[in-house]
Amino acid sequence: MDANTQWVMTGTALLGVAGGVLGSFALLRRRALVGDVLAHAALPGVAGAFLATGTKAVGPLLAGAAIAAVAGVLTMSAIARFSRLKADAAMSLVLTVFFGLGIMLLGAAQRSPGGNQSGLDKFLFGQAAAIVGRDVRVITLAAALLCLLVLLLFKEFKLLAFDPEFGVGIGLPMAAVELVFNLAVVLAVVIGLEAVGVVLMAALLVTPAAAARCWTDRLHLMVPLSGLFGALSGALGTAVSLVGPRMPTGPLIVLAATGIFVASLLLAPRRGLLARSLRSLRTRKAAQRERLLVALYDLAEEAAGAGNAPAVTAEALERRRGIPARSAGPQLARLAREGLVDEAGGTWKLTGRGLAEAYQAARSERLHLVYLMHQADLDGGMTDQGVRPAFAPEIVPQLEQWLRQHGLEPRLLPGHTAGEVG
Amino acid sequence: MGALAPLVIILVGAQVAGACALVGSFLLLRRMTMLGDAISHAVLPGIAVAFLLSGRPQSPWALLGAAAFGLLCAYLVQALQRAGVREDAGTGVAFTGLFALGVLLISAFADHVHLDLDHVLYGEIAYAPWDLWLVGERSLGPRALWTTGGIFLLDLAAVLLFYKELKFCAFDPETAEAAGINVRAFHYLLMTLVSVSAVAAFDAVGAILAVAMLVVPSATAYLLTDRLSVMLGLAVGLGALASALGYLLSRATDTSVAAAMAVSAGGLFALAFFLAPRHGLVARWRRRRSDG
Amino acid sequence: MAAESELALVVRDLTVAYQRRPVLKDVNLSLPEGRLIGIVGPNGAGKSTLMKAVLGMVPRLSGEVWVSGRPPAAARQEIGYVPQRTAVDWDFPTDVLDVVMMGRYGTLGLLRWPGARERELAMAALERVGMAEYARRQISQLSGGQQQRVFLARALAQDARLYFMDEPFAGVDAATERAIVNLLRGLKARGRTVVVVHHDLQTVREYFDWLVLLNVRVMAAGPVERVFTAENLTRTYGGRLGSLAHVAGASPAPLRTSGGD
Question: Chain A contacts of C234, Cβ < 8 Å?
C-alpha cells in the first residue's frame, strides 16, 4: 500500500471514529439527522469565506463553515421554539434554505478569480482520494480532540441524551452542554466535508451509531463500538476503492458503513432481527405448550375428581378451553413425541412424566393467579415473568396458603396412578 | 421565444413548486419532512439506472425508475422502524446508502454516456425555454412545461380525490385505522406522489433544491392559516410567488435560478415567521404582553 | 348461552406479550349487546392493550376475536373507537366540525365528498355532547374536556354499533363528565354497546351495568351487581380489604374464577 493510500485510509478511519462517537449521542437524542442538516447548512459559510478572503486555504473556509453551521443550529432552535412548527420542519427549513443560499454564493464565488467549476462537486462528494499528509494531521487532531471531549463530558452528554431536565434539576448547565455538543458536531462535519463531502459525512454521523445500537444498549459500550464501526467503514471503503480506476472513495465508505449496519441489524445476538424472530417463535411455541399442559392438567384433575377416565379429545379442548382444534392437533403430537402424552383412538392421556410436567405448569399458573390477586400485599417476589412464572422462595409458602384458601391447589399429584386424587 | 423565456422559466418553477407544495403540506403535517428530504436524495440511483438503460436523462423511464427508488426508500424506513430502528436513524441510513449507491453507479459507468451529474443535482431550469418537445417535425413547446404541468395536475387530482382520507390519516392515523381507512395504503400513495414530484422537480431545479419546494412554502402557509384547504392553496400560491421572485433575484445577482428560488421561498418564510397575523413572532409576543 | 352473533364481542384465548412478559393472558370474554360495559383493573393490567388487541392495533401471541359474529376487520364500520386524548397534534389546521365529520369518512368511502348530510350528522353529534357552538373553533383553542367531547362526537357521528372508549373520563371537568355519562346512557337507550376502560372505582356502579375485572387475566366478568364485590376487587387489585369493601359497599359473593358468561 503506498503512502497516499495510507493517508487516505487513516484520514477516513479517523473521520469514521469522530462520526461514530458523536453520532451515538445524536442518535439517542433522536437528532440523528442533525449532521445532515449542519453539513448542508455549512455551504454558505464556505462560499462566503472564499468570497471574503479570496483564498481557498483550509483555515478560513473551515471557519466560515463553522459560523454558518452554528447559525443553522440557532435558527433551528428558534424556529422550533418560537413557532408552531415542529423539530423536523425546522431541520428541513434550515437545510434547504441555507443550502440554497450557499449555492447562490458559490455561483458568485465561481465567477470570481480563483473559483472553478468543480468546487461544488467536491463539497458534495468530497475528494477523499486527495487527502494528503497535512490533512490527516488536521483530521487526527480534530478526531483526538473530539474523543477527549466526549471522555471528559461523558456523564453530561449522557444526561443530555436521556434526560436533560433532570440534568438541569441537579444543577448542571445543560444549555452550555448542548451548545458544546452542537459545536462538536459542527467541528466533525466541517472537518469531514473536505474529505467525504456533505451527504456522506451525514451518513458517518448516523449509520455506524445505528449499527452499534443493534449490539448493545449500554452507552459506554455503544460509543466506542460506534467509533470502531466508523473506522472500519473508512478503512473498508478506501480498500475497496483501490480495486478499480473509477471507484469514488466517499460513496464506498458510506456503502461499507451501510453494509456493517445491515449485518448488525440481522445478526446481533439480542437485538438483531434473526435473534428476535427466533426468540419470538420460541416464546410463542413455549406459551402454547404451557397452555396446553395446563389445560390437560385441569381436565385430568376434574375427571379424576369425578371418578372418570382422564382421556381428552381435541374437541373437548376447544370447547372447554378455547384451544382451536386445528392447532391443538400438532401441539398434542409434539407432546407425544416428548413422551408426555399417549394417544389412543382419538383421545389423549397424560403419561406419568406428562403428569409431572403438567402439574408443574398448572401449579405455576395458579400461583401466578393468586400472586396477581394479592400483589399489593407482596413486595415483588416474582423471579421469572416469562412463559412459566417463578417466584422467590420466601413468598412461596404464603402463595401456597392463598392457593389453599381459594381452593385452587392442584389435587392430582404426580406419581399417583390415573384416577386417584391426592 | 426570447421575450417569453422568463415566463416559461417562472411557470415551470411555479408548477414544480405547486406540485411539491401540495404533497409537501401533508409531509409537514405528518412531521415527515425529513423523509421528503431523504426521498429526494434516494431517487438518484433510480435516475442513474434509468439513464444507463435508456441513454437519456429525460426519458419517462427515468421518472418511473427514480420514483421506484424513492418509494423503496420510504419502504425501507418503515421496515427499519418495524425492526426496531428509530425513524430518524432509519431515514438517515436508508437515504445515505441509496444516495451513495447512486453516486457510485454514475461515477463508475457514466463516462460511457454523457450524464451530467451537475444537471441531475442542480437542474437546468434556465435552459427550459429552449428545450423543446419535438414530435416528428412539430414542436409542442418547452418540454419542462409539459412534464411539470402534468405532475402538478396529477398531485392536484390525487389531493382532491383523496382529500378526506389524507387529512384523517395525517391528523389521527390510529382512529383512521380503526374507522376502516387503509392508513398504510395512503401512506404509500403519498410517498409515491412525493417521489414522482421530486423527480419532476429535478429536471427544473435539481435534486437538492426539490426539497426546498416540498417544505418551505408549506411551512409558510402553515403559519398563515388554521384551515387545511386554505393552507394548501396558500402553499401553491407562495410557491408560485417564490418562483417569480427567485427568477428576478437570479437575474439581479447572476446566480443559479433554482438557488434563488429556494432563497426567495426562505425569505417569504421569514416574513411569515415574524409577521403572520396569529402565529407570527410579533403577534405572539404582543399576546403574551397583553396576557401577562 | 346466546348465539355468537348476538354477542357484541367475543374474545377467545387472547394472549398479548411484550418481549417475554405477558401483558394479557388467556383472556376469554363474551360481552352482551346493548350494555354499558366497564373494564377496570390496576395500572399495567392490560386494559388499553385489550382494546387495542381487539382492534388489531397490537400484535397478539394467540387468540381470536369476533365482533357480532364477524372478525373485527370486516366490522370496522360498526366499531367506533375513542382513543386516549394525547396522541393527536392539536396544532393541526382544522376546526371542531371538521374533526367530527372525520367520523363519517369510513362510511363515506373513497372518492366521495362529505356533503350536507354529513354536516347534519356531525352537528347533531356536537349537539349531543354540548359543543355545537364551538363548531368553527380551531381545535388548539379547546380545553382538555372540550377536546374529549369532540372526540366523542366524532365517534357518535360514526353511528357505530359497538364503541370502544379508552379512559374517556380521565382528566375532564365535572360538566364534561356529566355530559359523557348522559351520552353513554343515550347510546344504550338506542341499543348500542359501549365498552369503556375506566379508572375510577367510585363511579363504577353508577355508570355501568356490566363489568370486566382485569389484571393480566380476566378475574371476573358479568353484571355489575353480581361481579362488583369486595372479594372480586381484592382479587383483582390485591391489597387491604377495608377500603375496597367500602368502595364496593356490597356483601362478599362466592368465589368465581375467570370466564365470562
Answer: 373-374
